[in-house]
Amino acid sequence: MQATIRWQGNVCFEAESGSGHKILIDGPPDHGGENRGPRPMETLLLGMGGCASFDVVHILRKSRQDITDCRCEIQAERAEDEVPAVFTRIHLHFVVTGNDLKENQVRRAVELSAEKYCSASIMLARAGVEITHSYAVEAA
């Protein structure tokens, strides 16, 4: 896996993934940014949420659940008055929508992502970040 980060001036960078996808990463105006993209730490959360969501959807589809939507809402806390201002707590709440979804299947998919498959969240947990998960099941 590879990526390239290219400076775009001020505190803005273009990040290109090895698969050729690009995003802008920028800072807030009070740090010389123009708010043209997410902050670096926000992209870390986005990646973690994407990784976990991919797992949950994949597991549910593999278990033949009729899933129509999945949303992962993330709340994170960072160390205050410290440098580096690392994440201390992250909570992922999955809202899974579908037809006749089995709650035990959704619970199990979230657990498997958290404990076995989501490389991003497992890596952060091993680094000392407290990571919690919850879920809700909604009818389509």
CATH class (first level) name of the largest domain? Alpha Beta
Q: How many domains would you count in the coordinates?
A: 2
Task: Point out poorly predicted stretches.
Answer: none
Tally of helical runs: 3
How would you sum up the major sheet? Answer: 3 strands, antiparallel
| Strands, count | 6
Query: What is CATH's topology name of the largest domain?
Result: GMP Synthetase, Chain A, domain 3
Topology (SSEs and partners):
Blueprint: E1 3-7, E2 13-17, E3 22-25, H1 40-62, E4 66-78, E5 87-99, H2 103-117, H3 119-126, E6 130-139
Parallel strand pairs: 5-6
Antiparallel strand pairs: 1-2, 2-3, 4-5
Write a concise synopsis of the structure shown:
The protein is built from three helices and six strands.
Task: Provide a descriptive summary of the structure in words.
This protein is α+β, with helices and mostly antiparallel strands and 140 residues long. The chain has 2 domains: 1-38, N-terminal domain of TfIIb; 40-139, K homology (KH) domain (GMP Synthetase, Chain A, domain 3), CATH 3.30.300.20. The protein contains 3 helices and 6 strands, in the order E-E-E-H-E-E-H-H-E. Strands 1-2-3 form a 3-stranded antiparallel sheet, with no helix packed on it. Strands 4-5-6 form a 3-stranded mixed sheet. Strand 2 (13-17) and strand 3 (22-25) form a beta hairpin. Helix 1 (40-62) crosses helix 2 (103-117). The chain is globular, with a radius of gyration of 17 Å. The chain starts with a strand and ends with a strand.
